[in-house]
Amino acid sequence: MQFNAFERNKQGTGASRRLRNSGRAPGIVYGGTAAPALIEIDHNELWYALKKEAFHGAVLEMNLGGAAQKVLLRDVQYHPYKPQVLHIDFQRVDANTKLTLKVPLHFNGEENSSAVKIDKCLVTRITNEVEITCLPADIPEFIAVDLSALTKGQSIHASDLSLPKGVAIAAHGKVNPVIVSVSTPAVEEAPAAE
User: Fold this and answer.
1) 2-92 CATH fold
2) Averaged pLDDT, 123-128
């Protein structure tokens, strides 16, 4: 995915406010061997790009000053109640350096599982994304989670996910976090006959 950015000379609260009033969003690009660069992006173009899931978890191509750079979205700050981006951060990507980032999970097959069809259990999705470590070329757009084989009382852990080649789960202290759990619904007891 490509987008255009422009170098920004002025920094500070007042300069950023004037930039936002003119229809642009301030940002920064950091990482790699080059020094951090202050940038500005057309706000409407950025707003609609942020609506796409691929913009959040893929390596992007940023055109800055006539040169293309590979970057990864790292942080977005939104206005509390206006539909406005206040600031955006990008990290330069090196093809030979492993990255740690969050990737969305796409769930399917829940309605076909025996836990839901036969046992009338509740399927609880504990998380909608998982943090992975991989090279930039191996970043998946999403990780599919098949729920069709779920049974009563079963859980799906991070180790049960089918990951693409070159991708590993970043656990950060948790040995094997739970992704999905299946629980039996509470049944109300009938009142005793008098």
Assistant:
1) Ribosomal Protein L25; Chain P (2.40.240)
2) 90
Q: Tens digit of pLDDT for each residue in 25-74? A: 999 999 888 899 999 999 999 999 999 988 888 889 999 988 899 999 99
92: phi then psi, degrees, rounded to nearest 5? -65, 145
Instruction: For residue 130, list its beta bridge partners.
Output: 103
Least Cα distance to 1 among 34, 42, 45, 39 occurs for 45
Which backbone phi and psi does 50 adopt, to 5 degrees? -70, -20
Alpha helices in the chain (DSSP H): 13-21, 43-50, 53-57, 114-117
Cβ atoms of residues 182 and 153 within 8 Å: yes
The domain limits of the chain are: 2-92, 99-183
Distance CA 173, CA 79 (A): 33
Q: What is the mean pLDDT of the chain?
A: 89
